[in-house]
């Protein structure tokens, strides 16, 4: 079985990536990992041309077609994202928008986990909004919302030093 790990932080050692790497290490006994750092992908935004709906691939040749193949082949997906302005990173939003080229059956029955880090307290609205977005995406696409880990982390409180958050990242996988 294959899991696609999507790291969407602009920082390769950012808080969301740190927790997602722990999640990924925990999953290696059950899944073959395909890791993608969206910051390195240099993806372009969707042009809304709908060419993909008749050709089943995007007209833009920037690597997203290959990422969509990996997405289709994966039984599990994990998105890790910092939270900016009450939502996911621009890199992850761009990736999600470009998944438009896929057919609805390409999403069905995949397990989706999400790791989100930000500076707000855990009872802050940003984490609720991110969770609700992915719950709605799963409901629409037929994916299973397998888990969500919101963590308050910043430069003064890094995730890599938060023993509880690291344990929660490991537990997130075991709950799948």
Write structural notes for this entry.
- By secondary structure, the protein is an alpha/beta fold.
- The protein has a single domain, classed as Flavodoxin domain (Rossmann fold), CATH 3.40.50.
- Helices cover 39% and strands 20% of the residues.
- The chain is built from seven helices and five strands; from the N terminus they run βαβαααβαβαβα.
- It has a five-stranded parallel beta sheet with strand order 2-1-3-4-5, with helices on both faces.
- Helix 1 links the parallel strand 1 and strand 2.
- The longest helix has 17 residues.
- The relative contact order is 0.19.
Largest sheet: 5 strands, parallel
Helix count, DSSP H or I runs of 4 or more residues? 7
CATH architectural grouping? 3-Layer(aba) Sandwich
Approximate shape? globular
Strand content: 15-25%
What separation lies between the terminal Cα atoms?
13 Å
- Can you give the helix content as a percent range? 25-40%
H/E series, N to C? Answer: EHEHHHEHEHEH
Biggest sheet strand line-up: 2-1-3-4-5
CATH class: Alpha Beta
Number of strands: 5
Q: What's the mean pLDDT score? A: 94
Instruction: Tell me the structural class.
Output: alpha/beta
Rg over CA atoms, rounded to whole Å, is 16 Å
Q: What low-confidence regions span 5 or more consecutive residues with pLDDT below 50? A: none
Domain count: the total is 1
